[in-house]
Amino acid sequence: MTQKPEVDLGELRQITSWLAAGEIGFIEISKPGATVRLKVDAGRGSDDDAPLPPPTPRTPGRRPGSAQSAHTAVVNVVAGTVGRFLAAHPAREAPLVEIGAHVARGEVIGLLQIAQLCLPVAASTAGVVRQRLVAHGATVGYGTPLFEIAPAP
Fold it and tell me: Total structural domains in the chain?
């Protein structure tokens, strides 16, 4: 007797709404005997060539009206979705980027893991990685600052 896998349409709707909210266009979920592929179109074109969002300048400890030098300005790289932050690929021990490393805009500097899916965290500006703000393996929410980058002049 063949067992038919059951699919809960409510669960699929919930997952696709999470994908759309996280700007994830495609996911594949597999288990023995079943594979589900979800693609979110919702008027979206290909995001492969879309520009990265503009960097968010931030000066640590700066209050409006205070005088500090421009060299203390940093850009926070934030989580684009909820997930588990990974400083290194699960199959490797070495981190994707070291503190003090020069990075290019768009370079992968971390990962966000959602179940078995790993999404890249890209540098939003060229510069030097000043610090990692989240521990490897920590669960993060949307918008959580992950790295500080000192922009290249």
Answer: 2
